[in-house]
Amino acid sequence: MGIQFSVGGYAYLHVGFIFLGVLGFCEAGLTSSYVRNNGLSQDMPLDSDVFKEPPGYNAPQQGHITQGDHEGKGVIVSWITPDEPGSNSVLYWPANSRIKKTAHGVVVKYTYYNYTSGYIHHCTIKNLDYDTKYYYELGAGNVTRQFWFLTPPQPGPDVPYTFGLIGDLGQTYDSNRTLTHYELNPVKGQTLLFVGDLSYADSYPLHDNTRWDTWGRFIERSAAYQPWIWTAGNHEIDFVPEIGETKPFKPYKHRFFIPYKASQSTSPLWYSIKRASAYIIVISSYSAYGKYTPQNKWIENELPKVNRTETPWLIVLMHCPMYSSYVHHYMEGETMRVMYEPWFVQYKVDVVFAGHVHAYERSERISNIRYNVVNGFCTPITDDSAPVYITIGDGGNQEGLVKEMTQPQPEYSAYREASYGHGIFDIKNSTHAYFGWHRNQDGFAVEADSLWFVNRYWKSIEETSVAVK
Ligand SMILES: [Fe+2]
C-alpha cells in the first residue's frame, strides 16, 4: 500500500505493482486476487438524471466534440436537436476575448427500422489557436447552451499531455461509476481515447436507437468539454438484414463525424491524428484489413509517415485485442495480429490499446512475428521493439465482466484482472510516460496496475548512438 488521498469524496489508493513490466519477461505475470462479486451490471433506467433532456423547446442535446483536423487546431462539434433543425451554427470565442466567431455545420438524419433520429449537427471549427480555452454556444433564440474546451499544445516532442482510456462503456450504473472515476481522477485526462463499443443500443430489441440518444446525453458531461477520440467496435456495426438494416455502422457514422480525410483515409473507421507529443492511429477490427484492402493500404502508407522526432509517442487504438488471455473472445484478434504485428514492431509502436474483452490486461513487450507456419516458432518472445498491449474493455456495460481466464497465465501476460475501470496515459516528455489503470472499487478508484513507459523510438536512438561510440 502506498499513499492515500481523496478528492471529492473519492479516495485514490496507490497500490504498487509498479515496474512489474520492466523487470523482464522471465518474471511471472500476475493475475489479480481482487474479484468483484457483481459481474452483471444493470442499465440505468430511462428516467435517470444522467439521461435527462435539457429544458426548452428544441434545446441542443448530446453535445460532444472530437478532433477536427490532423494537427489539433480543429474541433468537430456535434449535437442533436430533437424537434426541428434549428441553428446549425456554433458561436465560439477564446476565453480571453469578447470577439465571437461563427462556424457553420451540416445536419444529417437517419432512420433505423421504426426509429427516426433527431437532427444531428456536425460543425468543424478550424484554425483555432493551440493551447487555448474556448467557449462555444449551441442553439438559437432563448434556448442556447454553452460549453468550453481546451485546444492541445502545438505538436512537439516534449509536450506533456494526458490521455484517458475507456472502452466498452454502455450505460449502466457501472458505466456511470467509470466515467465519474475518470472525471474525479486527480490526474486529469485532457482527451479521452475511446476504444470502441459505445452505447450498446444494439442489445435492445430492434437495436432500439433511443438508447443511442440516452447514451449521448449520458456522456455529454465529459464529451462536450474534451475530445473523445473514437474507435468503432462490434456494437457499432448494427447490421440486421432481417429488419432491412443492411448498412453497417449506420447509427455510428451519422452520430460521430471523424476527421479521416485529414489523414488521407477513405473511411471514418480508420484514421490518424497528432495531438501534442502523440501520434494516434485508429484502426477498425470490423472492416476488411487483409492485403490489398483500403485499410491495409492506408496503414502501410501511414506508419512510415510518422515523424517520431515531432510526435515520439506512437499509440494505436483498435477494438478487438491482438493479445488477450481471457477465454471470452479468445483468438478473435489473431488474424489482425498476423497482418499488422510485424509493422507495429518495425515502426516501434509504443502501446496498443484495445477493448472488446470486458476486463483489464497488460502484456509484456513481446512479439510473435518470427512464426511463419512452417518453422514452428509459435510462442511470443520478448521484443524490445514491440508495443505493450493493453486491453481496457472494462467500462461497465450491461453484458458484465468476463472472468474466465486461460490457465496458466501465459508468460507474455503481465497483469490481468476482471474488474471495471479506466486508464490514464500520462505523457511526461519525449522519453517517459506513466500509465495507470484505475479499478472501480465500490465508490473508490484504486490504481491497481501501472507502468512507466520508456519511449521506443528514443530508446532505440539512444542505444544506436551508444553502439556507434
Ligand atoms: Fe466488443
TrEMBL record:
In terms of Pfam families, this protein maps to: Metallophos (PF00149), Metallophos_C (PF14008), Pur_ac_phosph_N (PF16656)
Q: Which residues form the Purple acid phosphatase N-terminal domain?
A: 60-150
Entry's transmembrane regions: 12-35
Question: What EC number(s) would the UniProt record show?
Answer: 3.1.3.2
Purple acid phosphatase C-terminal domain mapped to chain residues: 386-445
| Entry keywords, A to Z | Glycoprotein, Hydrolase, Iron, Membrane, Metal-binding, Signal, Transmembrane, Transmembrane helix, Zinc
MF GO annotations: acid phosphatase activity; metal ion binding
Q: InterPro entries annotated for this entry?
A: Calcineurin-like_PHP (IPR004843), Metallo-depent_PP-like (IPR029052), MPP_PAP (IPR041792), PAPs-like (IPR039331), PAPs_C (IPR025733), PAPs_N (IPR015914), Purple_acid_Pase-like_N (IPR008963)
- Which cofactors are named for this entry? Cu(2+); Mn(2+); Zn(2+); Fe cation
Query: Taking every annotated instance into account, which residue ranges of this chain make up the domain Calcineurin-like phosphoesterase?
Result: 162-360
> Reaction(s) catalyzed by this protein?
a phosphate monoester + H2O = an alcohol + phosphate
Family the UniProt entry places it in: Belongs to the metallophosphoesterase superfamily. Purple acid phosphatase family.
Subunit and interaction comment? Homodimer; disulfide-linked.
The record's PANTHER family line, in alphabetical order, gives: ACID PHOSPHATASE RELATED, FE(3+)-ZN(2+) PURPLE ACID PHOSPHATASE 12
Name of the protein in question:
Purple acid phosphatase
